[in-house]
Amino acid sequence: MAIVAINPTKIAGLWKSGVALDLHTTSSTPTGYNEFGHMQFDTVRPEIAECLYRLKNKADRSAADPIIETTANYLSRHREKFDCIVPVPPSHQRALQPVIVLAEGIAKILGVPVLSCIATTRPTGQLKNITDPDERKEHVRGLYAIDKVQTRGRKILLFDDLFRSGTTMNAITEVLIDPGQAAVVRALTITKTRSNQ
After folding, report:
1. Pick from 23, 105, 42, 36: which is nearest to 72 by CA?
2. What CATH number should be reported for the domain holding residue 103?
3. Which CDD domains does UniProt cross-reference here (predicted)?
4. Does the global pTM surpass 0.85?
5. Distance (Å, rounded) from C-alpha 54 to C-alpha 190?
6. Buried b (16+ CB within 10 A) or exposed e, 143-154
7. pLDDT in tens, 118-173
8. Smallest Cα–Cα separation from 19: which of 75, 67, 73?
9. Number of domains the chain is built from
């Protein structure tokens, strides 16, 4: 087993309860500009966040295993609180979709289904470049559609790799509850940013 150290913290939103397993970074120190004029940083990450960075930014599939095993180990003591995992739809295309790879790996260990019940109604960009909270909410308004046949009466664990402001997860929680008729929605992310920008 490749369990790594985590420091779970609560994340607040429309869900019944939510947890991020650790911070996304512990520090990020500017080190100067590169030859293209972009500021470079010396970034320190918790162990699980370093694995996530390798998975997302380096397409290192082997980095998924410690995340999956650590998350499944953490969730095993809360197993009665959910009966399926719903991954947040990826915001842009990658050859390797980290959220899907992780959700499927975690679900397999825990013996629960992954529901592909959320669709986007239009092309979507990443929210990380939008800092205004009202603009973020407007960006996701009406963005998600739900297949309530899959979600009606379910105890759902909404899953994402990174929690920043909660805008996306709150919008999805809304559609899972109404019109999705989920019995309960809880939230879990691998990491959270130090600020909500």
Report:
1. 105
2. 3.40.50.2020
3. PRTases_typeI (cd06223)
4. yes
5. 13
6. bbebebebbeeb
7. 988 887 666 666 667 777 777 788 889 999 999 999 999 999 999 998 999 999 99
8. 75
9. 1
Give me the domain span that covers residue 47: 9-192
Residue where the block lists tokens 């309960």: 184
Kindly state whether residue 31 falls inside one of the protein's structural domains: yes
Residue 66 burial by Cβ neighbours in a 10 Å radius (0-12, 13-18, 19+): buried
Q: What radius of gyration, in Å, describes the C-alpha atoms of the chain? A: 17
Classify residue 104: in a domain, yes or no: yes
Q: Which amino acid is at 75?
A: L
Q: Please, what is the Cα angle at 18 between 5 and 97, to 5 degrees?
A: 70
Q: How many residues does the chain have?
A: 197
What's the CA gap between 141 and 157, in Å, rounded?
A: 22
Compute how many other C-beta atoms are within 10 angstroms of the C-beta atom of residue 127. Answer: 16
Give residue 153's identity as a one-letter amino acid code.
Answer: G
Contact predicate 169/186, CB 8 Å? no
Q: Note the pLDDT tens digit of each residue in 178-189.
A: 999 999 999 999
For residue 197, is it within any domain? no
pLDDT for residue 1 is more than 60: no
Q: Prior bond to 179 cis, omega within 30? A: yes
Whether residue 93 is contained in a domain is answered as yes
Query: Can you point out the beta strands (E) in the chain?
Result: 9-10, 18-23, 27-33, 39-44, 84-87, 118-120, 144-146, 155-163, 184-192
